[in-house]
Design brief:
The protein is mainly alpha-helical. It is about 65% helix and about 0% strand. The protein has one domain (about 5-40). Helix 1 packs antiparallel against helix 2. The chain is globular, with a radius of gyration of 10 Å. The termini are far apart.
Length: about 45
Amino acid sequence: MGVEHQIAFFLRELSAPDPARRAAAAKGLARTRRAEHAHVLVW
């Protein structure tokens, strides 16, 4: 799975009903260290 696919997956998972899945998605997205997704993490 490429980085872009991972990012798309993490972004989708941020709206999952399970808090553990949302937390894992936020951590994964943060590990990409891409500034364009920072607003999603601090929202």
